[in-house]
Amino acid sequence: MKDRDILSRIKRGDESVLDQLYQKYFRMMSRMVLNNSGTEDDAKDVYQEALIVFWQKANSLDFELTSKISTYLYSICLNQWRKELDRRSKLSREEKDGMDFQQHEEDQSYDIIVACIEELGDPCKSILMYHYFDGMSMSDIAERMNFANTDTAKTKKYKCKKRLDSIVRRRYKKEDFFS
Amino acid sequence: MMPHDDIERYVLDRMSHVEKTAFEIRIKEDAAINEEVAFQRTIFKGIGEARKAALKNRLAQVPVSSSWFSNAISSGWAKAAAGIVVVSAASLIFYTEGHRDDLGDDNSSVFIDAPESQEEIVISIPDRLITEKADAANQDIATASTTIENYDIAREIVEDEFQEDNVDLEGTLQIVPVNPPELEFEGELETQDEENNTLLDISSVEAPINIDVIESEEERLYRYFDGTLTLKGDYNSIYYDLLELNLEEGRLYFIEIDGDYFALPVTESFRSLDLIVNKSLISTLDSLTALN
User: Fold this and answer.
1) DSSP string computed for A82-131
2) Contact B290 A71 (CB under 8 A)
3) How far does the CA of residue A90 sit from the closest CA of chain B (Å)?
4) Residue of A41, A64, A108, A110 to mutate for B, most B C-beta atoms under 10 A
5) Is the peptide bond before B265 cis (omega within 30 degrees of 0)?
6) What residues of A are in contact with residue B51 (Cβ under 8 Å)?
7) Predicted ipTM?
8) Helix, strand, or coil here: B198?
9) Which of B290, B250, B219 minimizes the C-alpha distance to B132?
10) N or C: which end of chain A has fewer CB within 10 A?
11) Torsion of CA A87, A91, A94, A98, to 10 degrees
12) Confidence tier at A129 by pLDDT (50, 70, 90)
């Protein structure tokens, strides 16, 4: 399968292409991590993150691939792994406690949102993720989710977002977000 | 009244520069808007985290392994092969027994350790390929060693290309990525990603080889003779890459399928793919695959 076919499938929201890319290049990416002080779990984590970055970028309107996908993924993995090694190096020094605390606070806020999104269920959950993370247009969402038309998708998206805001406000205090 | 649309466009960075500047003044002046911006920022980040978690969860279900053995054992090749071998680190390029006849008298034997359940196989390597003179233009590399004793040197050269400006290799060693099916890849390959700030920059030359694919549902075979590589099997429906190492003694081709590399020595008749297990060579080919 050619790179342009892969991009085309990503644009159509075909997530199975990620599975194929994951399998195809995992050993190449993992060797890079394993040869640089990482473990197989590190390699999985780094490559999964890299694929998600690629997924999001490939879905953006101004994305232009100027190399092979393998090259692109390898460069993301290299960068992600360098960042991770830097982070671990910093953690092992004196900043550890402060960073841990700050990171913990942020993670808690996102956990709250993620829990509320789960509560929304489908189709709201998918609409919001497709639109706000994947960057899918409302017409593409309408087609993918078998809505009558783009306006229906827009209305649903608006209602779903309102509902999410409402759930978050109702169930959690302001201090949970702004400590 | 809370400007919800503007807040969303601001948080999602969909405003023009002028709009953004004006809106930031409003944020400073209005505590309620400021609070709502912070709230919505968390909401959108949370939506992103939910999506990432869903995609990561999906990928976590996909079976992968960094072990060549577990991957090889699950492949069709392994089922068909008489033995899976581990090449010692000292070896450079290996040829299977089927190639002994092609090698003449200048062969070295390399002892191969095979898993206990499988046969021990002696693989022959031509002496002329074990030592190659490198006349690389890059003086640092030439100072380190002027003899390519193994693929670690080639790997260093490739890694240098990742780390520094393009190294011009005009010497007797050329590492040439082949980019099928458009085999004429000239000029520079460049990729830059703003967020993941890595720049790769390599040069390549024309690769004079023809490739034919014969569709077949049977075992993957190949034939490489007279400048034409013929691939027989399900090659039209799988991912694969062809790689070329261009040494003084000749051009060596490799094919990468699902993370495994296979040597493609010259052969007039169709034959099976030879899995490469030499770690040093695999690292070199990894670098080429990434560059290609």
Assistant:
1) HHHHHHHHHHTSTTHHHHHHHHHHHHHHHHHHHHHHHHH-TTHHHHHHII
2) yes
3) 20
4) A110
5) no
6) 129, 132-134
7) 0.86
8) coil
9) B250
10) C
11) 90
12) very high
